[in-house]
């Protein structure tokens, strides 16, 4: 009965999200209606990730983590584009940078740290595959430096911006690096991204995968949910920006809100995997989402900025670069041994807390 209710819920919410778009599109809405739409938006995000998990269970690891990461990135791109189109020119240009940087901090410190912390609490030591995790972290560091750090130091354009040629190179390079990582993760060195064998069995490890029919239904509902998320995000985006302005927060907090909204379901999935003695799956989700967030979001936003003639600020400030460098350095020290204790998890969560604090109090 519980499973049946869950299926009904994950089917109804995406359909509801699409159904309410027509009456709400392009209209000034009362506050209670905007709150209701935001709640439906959250439900649609959770339903989308649920259906991605169904497909992930069908294809197995590490393909499952890849499906989840790509689904979340599609949602992120849709949210960014929706807010860019609805915002003024002076506020839209740094939105992609703020959102992508927030996604990197959330994944590489928040989700990464929670996975290690939960895994260590369950077994005293969280064990994972250092080869695959190290390769993923190196990919994140390369993409983040190429797209978020270099624009601060280039001289072709005034300010922390790429020229059109530089932006095109960064977009293509990001796609190439992302494609190579996917090939390594799913084909060439697939075993480096599989959960480390443990002596703890869990029912999920032996559960029957969904049927082909159920998988195709979930894929269809996933597309519907993504459509609803993007549409509702554009509808409630003025309320999000007004709420942040009313709270006295900097406009860069909009990107943090987007990233937190999109990555919340993925966080729950990673923590659930760590609790089930599959820390590697949680780390795959964390770092895979960071790689997809840069490798897919930046090219998509680059194309949109050129077509829509929107200036795109990508370069990070000094404080953000320090946090990024510290995150990569600490992450490398965490990954090398292939095992972590509560200490490593706590350190990453403190870095995540520092990012959130500095985002609202720069």
Please name the defining characteristics of this protein:
362 residues, mainly alpha, A middle domain of Talin 1, two-stranded antiparallel ribbon, 15 helices, 78% helix, 1% strand, disordered N terminus
Please describe the topology of this protein.
Elements: H1 2-19, H2 21-24, H3 31-59, H4 63-86, H5 89-92, H6 95-123, E1 126-127, H7 130-149, H8 164-188, H9 203-206, H10 212-246, H11 253-275, H12 279-295, H13 297-308, H14 318-335, E2 339-340, H15 342-360
Antiparallel strand pairs: 1-2
Helix pairs in contact: 1-3, 1-10, 3-4, 3-10, 3-11, 4-10, 4-11, 4-12, 4-13, 6-7, 6-11, 6-12, 6-14, 6-15, 7-8, 7-12, 7-14, 8-12, 8-13, 11-12, 14-15
Transmembrane segments: 36-54, 66-87, 99-121, 133-153, 165-184, 216-233, 253-271, 283-307, 313-335, 342-360
Protein name: Ionic transporter y4hA
InterPro entries: Alkaline_pH_Ca-Antiporter, NaCa_Exmemb
């Amino acid at each position: 009965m519980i499973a049946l209710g869950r299926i009904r819920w994950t089917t109804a919410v995406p359909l509801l999200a699409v159904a309410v778009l027509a009456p709400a599109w392009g209209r000034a809405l009362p506050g209670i209606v905007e709150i209701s739409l935001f709640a439906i938006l959250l439900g649609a995000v959770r339903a989308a990730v649920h259906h991605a998990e169904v497909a992930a269970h069908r294809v197995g690891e590490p393909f499952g983590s890849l499906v989840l990461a790509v689904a979340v990135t599609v949602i992120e791109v849709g949210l960014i584009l929706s807010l860019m189109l609805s915002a003024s020119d002076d506020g839209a240009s740094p939105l992609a940078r703020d959102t992508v940087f927030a996604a990197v901090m959330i994944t590489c410190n928040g989700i990464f740290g929670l996975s290690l912390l939960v895994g260590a609490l369950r077994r005293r030591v969280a064990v994972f595959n250092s080869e695959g995790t190290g390769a993923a972290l190196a990919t994140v560091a390369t993409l983040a430096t190429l797209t978020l750090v270099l624009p601060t130091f280039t001289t072709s354009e005034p300010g922390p911006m790429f020229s059109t040629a530089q932006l095109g190179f960064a977009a293509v390079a990001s796609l190439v690096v992302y494609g190579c990582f996917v090939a390594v993760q799913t084909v060439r060195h697939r075993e480096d991204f599989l959960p480390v064998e443990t002596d703890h069995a869990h029912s999920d490890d032996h559960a029957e995968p969904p049927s082909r029919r159920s998988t195709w239904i979930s894929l269809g509902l996933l597309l519907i949910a993504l459509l609803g998320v993007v549409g509702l995000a554009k509808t409630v985006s003025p309320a999000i920006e007004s709420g942040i302005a009313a709270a006295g927060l900097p406009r860069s907090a909009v990107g943090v809100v987007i990233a937190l909204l999109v990555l919340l379901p993925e966080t729950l999935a990673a923590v659930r995997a760590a609790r089930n003695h599959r820390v590697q799956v949680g780390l795959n989700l964390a770092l895979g989402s960071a790689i997809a967030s840069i490798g897919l979001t930046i090219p998509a936003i680059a194309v949109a900025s050129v077509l829509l003639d929107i200036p795109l600020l990508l370069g990070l400030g000094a404080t953000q670069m320090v946090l990024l460098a510290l995150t990569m350095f600490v992450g490398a020290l965490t990954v090398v041994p292939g095992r972590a204790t509560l200490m490593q998890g706590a350190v990453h969560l403190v870095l995540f807390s520092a990012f959130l604090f500095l985002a609202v109090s720069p």
